[in-house]
Amino acid sequence: MIKLHNIFRLRKLNGKFVWLSLFLFFGIGINSGITYAQDARRKIVTDSVALSTGNTGKIESDVIEQEQGTRTVNALKGRVSGVEVENGKIKIRGQSNVTDKLSEPLVIIDGVQLPSGFSWSGEDRFSPLNLLNSSSIESIEILKDADATAIYGGKGANGVVVIKTKKILEQKLRISASVAAGITGIDSWYDFLSTGEYLDIRAKALAADNITPTETNAYDLLLWGDKYHTDWQKEFMGQQGKVYNGNISISGGISDKTTFFINASYFETGTVLLAEPDDKEKRINTKLLVNHRGLNDRLEITASFAFNKLNVQNRGLDPDAYLVNAPNQPAYNDDGTLYWLPNNASFVNPLRGKYAVTQNKGTDLISNLQTHYRFLPDFDVIIDVGYSRNTADQFQTYSEKYLNPYAANTYKNRVLAGDSYSERFIAEPRINYVTARDKHSLTALLGASCQIDNFAGDDLELRDFPTELFFRNYAVAPVKYSVNSNTEEIKRASVYTRVSYDYDAKYIFSGIIRRDGSSIFDKGNRYGNFWSLAGAWVFSGEDFVHEKLGFLNYGKLKISHGLTGNDNVTPFQYITAYAAATYPYEGHSGLFLKRVANPQFTWEKTRKSEIYLGLAFLKNRLQVTGAYYLHTSNSLIGNQPIASQAGVSSYKDILQGVVLRSRGVELDMVSTNIRNRNFQWLTTLTLTVPDNSRITSFPGLENTSYATQFKAGESIHITRLYKFTGINPENGVPVVEDVDLNGTITAAGDKQFLEDTDPDYYGGLHNSFRYKNWQLDVFFYFEKRPFQEGYLKTYYYPAGYIGKNIPRSLANNYWTPENPGGTLPGLTTSTTSTIGQAYWNYYTESSAVYADASYIRLKNVSLAYTLPKPLTGKLKAKDIRLYVRGENLWTLTKFDEWDPETLKAIPPFRTITAGVTLSF
Amino acid sequence: MTRLFANLFICQLIFLSFASCDDILDVDLPGNILPREDVFDSPEAIKAAVNGMYAENFAVHRIYEYILPLYLSIAADESYHNLPNNYNYEELRKNAYGPSNDYVGFLWSYPYASTLLSNGLIEGLSQTVVISEEEKRHYTGEAKYFRAYNYFVLVNLFGDVPWVKSANIRETALQPRESKEKIITEAEGIIDDLKFTETALANSSNSNAYVTKAAASALLARVYLYHEDWAEAEAKAGEVIGTSGYELETDLDNVFLRSSKETIFRSSSAAGQPSYVGRTYLAVVLLNASYFRLTSDLVNSFEDEDLRKAKWLKNETTYFHPYKYKRNAAASAGAAEDLVLLRLAEQYLIRAEARAQQNKLTGENGAIADINVIRNRAGLSALPETLPKEQVLLAIENERRHELFVEEGHRWWDLVRTGRADAVLGNKAKFPEKQWESYKALFPVPEGELTQNSNLTPNPGYGDIN
Q: How far is A314 from chain B (nearest CA, A)?
């Protein structure tokens, strides 16, 4: 397609127009989100000036392939301003709804729109991005503002992620391959007390509580003593996994009219956590693409077919809860079986996780047929037809060995199995018209889209298999439940048009109208209209700039405003319906009135405004773009509360008067610090200063179920906590503020809205050095997040509690009668002592457990060496490159609790690989 | 250029108007819901919806097995809990509840949630043509039983309440309070609904795990008693007692078993199912020594030879807990138990009270004879026929206390309806922590309801929350 357009342009028009059209598509194409049209001229733009990293943020393969794990989505972190990646979820410029799920962006892979997240027991990895091998992605673009997203109308409110995979369309046979291998693991450890110190603090806690140790209340002291030693961190995550990555692509053609591209890749990583040899994540990607041009190049057909598969096997364990177990708790008996504390039904051996195996298998098929026909010199007809199918198969087994033999277990050898698939058919015909006369040029696009989604899934529970060898044979399980099953269908239909006009490549206007229909809503409310208007002024094209501001070689000011929508709501909420009763009655299943529906709700709407400035100085040596955005969402779908005399306390509706606002400043900078024949030093900086997802108005909030979650004027990530005021010097009890002054501490009366957990700013700094054939890339991610929950939030036991170790930092300054000024609660062995109760009930729900989780992390370092051409030539290769890459190598943070990025015990893995890429 | 723009614009208008057709977006329904219209288009689905009403009422709305017995016996003088940090319980125990107490909120909202199920069924059944009139009446009768029970709970706890008789939630959510008297006596009110049920189920072959004519009559007898329609109460209770098939179990251990002949209406806890539908929860709560304990006032009030003290209480050295149900999970060993909702013993006590109020104290058809039936089974001596009316009424109160303790909050309602609450719960010497005032006989209309529905008014004594 690239060639097609160029040929036409060159053949038909004089040189000046070529330049004009280039600029047009630079100006409007990229910056106004023409990506949709899969337009050829994009390529020219991206090749020409890096300035296009404006309000459409874009990263390319050299950056993407730095991300080597199965979480390809992390490649976006810090690389594109305005984009947050948290626990595998992408958020573009905050949220358009108060719930995360309704705020997921639209994801498009090679022109096929995919569901943004494949939910699979809440597993984050099933972002569709994670099914792709990072080395096969050509580019990822993030469309953010109204002008870029309004063309997606009712799907554009949360931004759009456009992914293109690599392809080569040339007749000459070309083969390129790469292989890499490496290791992944964890080597930052928490500093817990040693066995001796632990026993000491336990003895002190028992003394403080005036409790005489017995084998029941102090089995850790009396039964275990210092006889055993287990390093739980090493047990849980002390292993190193091996990483392998291989990729091959072959391209060529029967003629210059018919070409093909084949790609296959394999990725494997061993898991780090409590792994058995076959616990691995494996991913296979295959892709076949055929391209044909005919009818004097007026017709171009591209068919592509991609199949991706991801298999993950791991063990069920909960490091957040059990990493803190006592250092003298035995893990195994002498015979190698798990240790269980005799006659204690509630005792947990954390390593039981070995006997809870989870196997996740996901497949993803994406096929796409694109037909591009130029039936008149100015008119193109483009028809895209896509089909995608995603399957998720989860299989969890709990062997009898997982269970505490002293507990009254209600089951043995248990299987939880879940299967689901979702498929999408999408067809998008459109007509594109381009014309130019003198200094005027006009592009008009008219398109339609039809999309059908189907989903089906079921969950089963099977119990009491006679032996774990039969886990795959459901027939032998005497107890079987179908826990859940469901099917779902959604249809969407849309028409849209875009007109853009420019004069002399200086004044550019663009307007979009789109009408979207969705079966999510009831008849009469299915359609919504969306639009945008944008204007750009390339002021560097003005004479006065040339004359007065010679150092400025490019400058553009752009303003856009528009309306986008969101229908990402659970379907069929508009139907008054019965559902299966929770339990059978007298052995018969029943139905009950699950929902008295309100059919009135319709599209959520988000108004987006943006002002953007792009500048290039000193012959493009310094390129800076800045954007200020303001998004307001004011027709949020939520639970409208009503008096419960109606029989329900809320129903789905547009929440009247509720306004959610996201705004912020984004800055992107590319600086060529040094550039000469042998050495080049490039610095890229992205910085986002967000003020996102703030509820600016919520009438009657205090009477809704959101009352304890949100506060008007605050971010939706506001925390509602007790306010920790210190340790009572008399008795070591942690004290929280008694807001209602009634003498007792209750959640309703004394929790208060404190700070939000949003970042103040975040971004990335990338330095790239090239010396002759060597290239070094160093990428830092940074984030300022002053208030975030830490370790104690997940850890409810006071220091001195039976069987629970504490980090050294908590043993430094605890209260004792001799140390009345201690800043940590006094020691206690129980959650029912005065200290223990306060600890359990208030302290862990107070501001005391929040801390500054800002950090700077050295995310990626890559060193590559390209073999000199003469040598490469001798090997009959076109290009040979060797590299070493490292991920998550170093972190600077004051957060001494869990990891500041994951907010859990397990930090992102440190991965180091070495590899070679060859192309012939 | 201008003409071109104009042409394009027209083209696009045509194009955009093209897609306003709703029907092209029609989709297949999901597998896990059934639209209301479809339910009432299928005899099987209607039957399932009736069955589902029982399941949800007992397992989900939890009025019978949790909310009433637990909250009301704590608010009265029967029990306390061992969760001193739970201010909701503490306020109930001290009669210090206000409109913001969460459990008071549940006492209000759960009966209404259950009523919505009934109203949805009643509305749907009135329109369906796929089942016979006979079946329609049968199912409607079952739905009306639950609606009547819910309003019986609501008016006795709160006085005047919104009288919701439709499933149109956005309208009913704004209804004002209706007088208690109307809700009890008018058409589609409590008495009218129960009479409908009696007739509709006259020929029913329902087991006692479902509503029967006798269940409707038994509840109606209770309603008449509370409403002080003494003659009707006496007659209705007598009718139930005379119904063949029901008789008092002689052994107290058998009263709460599934096989009990005394049971008029019980919930189902089908064996082998993961659900125990209601009964279990109560059993667990009742057996959960750690937080549901009987007051020493109740325990000490039993006469020494009272067999109920030995068989229905369990001593945990420092305190007693109720032991009417003896199993704490459906799977555990022992004979099958279900939550008993209506039993014959109560009918004797209803008839006794109704007779006493009509000064029918002695003889075969006198109040004292009915009381003695219950006392006799509990191993107690018969009351003398010479007792004056006031003493007989007190004896009935006492007998109800010992026979029906923690069941459905009977004690609370007895104290409130007879006006004895002031004397008993206001007794500072016995209950120094209780902050009893006469107005607390009605619970406050919950705060959330008052703010959501501006047509509601607070109950007297609880102030205007604004």
A: 29
